[in-house]
Write a structure and sequence with these properties.
By secondary structure, the chain is an alpha+beta fold. The chain has helices spanning 2-5, 79-88, 97-106, and strands at 7-18, 28-37, 41-50, 56-68, 73-74. Strands 1, 2, 3, 4 and 5 form a five-stranded antiparallel beta sheet that branches.
């Protein structure tokens, strides 16, 4: 969409908690899911695990803004995109990163319950 329509998503903010180290050349698994959206933004949660997916290495939240590159303005999502987001979003109870972090630290495998 960026090349053909001049539309993209840009990072508005992010929060990350480093839980255990990832080493040079270590194979890791990154899991992500859309947990919230609005007419102009997307909120995505990502987690990084060791290769066997038994040790959580980090938790990451990113808020993206739908953006018109040509006009340098935010942009509302189309009805088609909103419908797609409604189908794939996996809401979570917490809307504050620190609260989610506490839940995940207490039970990292809560992150494994997503499709």
């Amino acid at each position: 969409m960026a090349k053909t329509k001049g539309i993209a998503w840009v990072v508005a903010s992010n929060q990350i908690a480093y839980i255990s180290p990832a080493f040079t050349m270590e194979t890791v698994v990154i899991q992500s899911h859309l947990f919230a959206f609005s007419e102009k933004s997307l909120s995505v949660e990502m987690s990084m695990w060791d290769e066997k997916q038994t040790k959580l290495k980090s938790l990451f939240w990113v808020k993206f803004i739908h953006f018109d590159i040509r006009n340098q303005t935010s942009l509302k999502h189309t009805a088609e995109l909103m419908s797609l987001f409604e189908q794939v979003a996996v809401p979570i109870e917490q809307n504050i990163f620190e609260e989610r972090y506490k839940q995940v630290i207490a039970n990292p495998f809560v992150l494994k319950s997503f499709p």
